[in-house]
Structures are given as C-alpha cells and as structure tokens.
User: What shape does this take?
Amino acid sequence: GQQVMQIPQYQHVQEGEDFTTYCNSSTTLSNIQWYKQRPGGHPVFLIQLVKSGEVKKQKRLTFQFGEAKKNSSLHITATQTTDVGTYFCAGPTAGGTSYGKLTFGQGTILTVHP
Amino acid sequence: DAMVIQNPRYQVTQFGKPVTLSCSQTLNHNVMYWYQQKSSQAPKLLFHYYDKDFNNEADTPDNFQSRRPNTSFCFLDIRSPGLGDAAMYLCATSREGLRTQYFGPGTRLLVL
Assistant: This one.
C-alpha cells in the first residue's frame, strides 16, 4: 500500500540553528501538504504544494516539492522556541474511494533549546 | 469565526463503559473525519463521511461507531473502551475541491 515516510523522527536543535525534515512517498502525489502540531495541540495546516519542483516560503520556513512529485522537504532557518512541535507531511491517499483522505508521514518532533 | 469544535476536551471513562465524543463545525464542509492519535504518532484515520456516505477504514475496530445526523455534527461512539483506546481523538473537516483538512482541538480520552 501507499506509504509516506518522514525523517528524522526526532530533531533537537539549539535556538538559531537550522532544521530540515524530509518526506518521501512510495507513489507520485498530486499534491503534498504540511501540518504543524504544537505539544498538546492539534494539527494545523501550513501549506500545500502542487507543482513539480515547487518552492514556497513562509517567513523562515521553506517548502519544496520534488521534481518527481514523490518527495518534499521543510526547512526552517534560524529556529526559534516557537517552532517547537511535530511537523507532518501528508499526501492524498491513493484509491478510487479515498476522496479527500490523507496519508500522513510519521512526523518529525522538533525541540529547540534556548 | 468558522471553526471545528470538539466536546469534551477531556474525557475520563471506565474500562468497558460506553463513551460518546462530539464534533461540530461551522465551516459547512461536507466531509468529516475521525482520527485516533497516540503519543508521538501520526493521526490514524478511523472513518470519514462524505456527505451522508459513511466510509470505514478496514482496520477500524467494530468497537468504534460513528453518526452524522446533519452536516454540522458528527459523533464518535466507543462501545466498550479498552485501555488501548486511550488516545487523542481528532475531528477534521474538508469539502469538495478543497484538499486540505481543518482539525478540531481534539478530545483526550483516558480509560481507567
């Protein structure tokens, strides 16, 4: 079945260091989405990438979608303590009856030491 | 503000005692999802409604049931909670043409 793999599982950084999480799908994706979940909170949509090779930026966050539309990355420049949380990538679940369903990666738990 | 609301935020139940979690939305989205999320894991889809059509995941235990009486409300019933059902339960919504999902704050379930 379809799999979305995310690495690393955990990342500890000092405040000010950069952070990157990588996402790989076993199937080609029509789009990929990124969500952030703060500790004790719920997933919050960050961004969606649709085009092959697409790069989008949100302040210190840079999102990329691979040329083959099977991988993606999220890069945070100069992390801050407010960046703490779990970052999930998610792609549409394959299959004719799976309208609107998402397959989530395992998530990368980011901790930032002040 | 349009939003997804879950009640209660925390629920404590006893082993085997039925429990119902609720979700309501003011987004007028036609798709609603229930997820189970355990610590340090990704949300796991239990089932979803596309309008009134119910779609169960193949590995969702029979112990979990759902009802959607109207567009705005959706309920998750756990008929006989076991210790392994302790988790965060997340409700999410979406609509046709919108690929993203909007999550509610979740209900944290504790089974004693």
About this structure: The two ends of chain A are 41 Å apart (CA to CA). Chain A has a mean pLDDT of 94.
